[in-house]
Task: structure prediction
Amino acid sequence: MSQQGGAIVSKPTKSENVPKAMQKKFDEIVAITEEFSQQHLNEEYAELIRFATAALCRKRPSPLARGRAKTWACGITHAIGMVNFLYDRSREPYISAKDLYQWFGVSSSTGQAKSKLVRDTLNTHQLDPEWSIKSINKDNPLAWMITLESGLTIDVRTAPRHIQELFYQNGLIPFPPDAFESEDTPSRPRASKKRKSKPTKAELNSLYVLNVYLFDGLVTEEFIKTNPVVCRTIEIKGSNTLTDLHDAIFDAFDREEEHLYEFQIGGKGPNDPEAVRYGMKSPFSKPMFGNDSKDAEATRIASLDLSVDDAFGYLFDFGDSWMHQINVMSISENAPKGNYPRATKREGESPPQYPDFEEE
Result:
């Protein structure tokens, strides 16, 4: 926060004001997004989507000036959904990206590309306080850390109520912290199989051979015809972490841009609610993906108590839902010297993370 003449400088206020030349396009897009929000989201989402649409209309030149209203409605809604983890099953409201695209009647490649353009234009990202709903901002430190003119950074949640109100009135925080009453979120049931906490030295030095199969994501029918199987074989040591495995898969599939991810261990199939989730540690030391999600970076492969022929899930990018099945092919003692993890075999081409699209 900065001050001018002793007064607090407010952040710009979101609005639905748009240039006269863009009013018709704004109305067309919002009519579509309002219907979608009524069916699948809520008024808070609907308002953010209207604000985002208006902000894009005010850009000079506006990207919305060209293209169909339904395509932009899909892209804007998907973008706001990505910022707010809409595609995470542990949250409410929830809808899959695939169902979102289908509702708007837009192909996944077109919807995703428009969404990326929206996010780039608004310079937004996941956990961006500017475009987050209350339930996200409640525990998001980015929403509450204010730098004073003296250079001191404070957490407004610890400030007296009258100070919180002052910051709120000037648009520097999304709402007074104690004005938001959260409800307890029920935890996912945990898998019954217990995990090891302290692997032995021999287990840490074991070599795991994993086959990582891609079976769902942003791929075209043409790609599937020429690449019926897409698989990467990865060797990894017991001492490596699930984050190391994520990095190896990311490189093995030639991906370019990082997104959130989770491993699903102990379930009976993809997205089984009884699987134990391991994901990225949140910047505020709470689970990203539900109350019982564990930290992938702190979890060694040897601690998972895997056996040969076990299979577990790996979801990359909650927006486009690249789903993989990982099969444990072998586990051997005394891994040879070398750098791990490493990809040793590739079957099928890597699909582009962001396919080319044509305006619909």
Remarks:
- Residues 1-182 form one domain.
- The CA atoms of residues 187 and 292 lie 6 Å apart.
- The first strand starts at residue 3 and ends at 4.
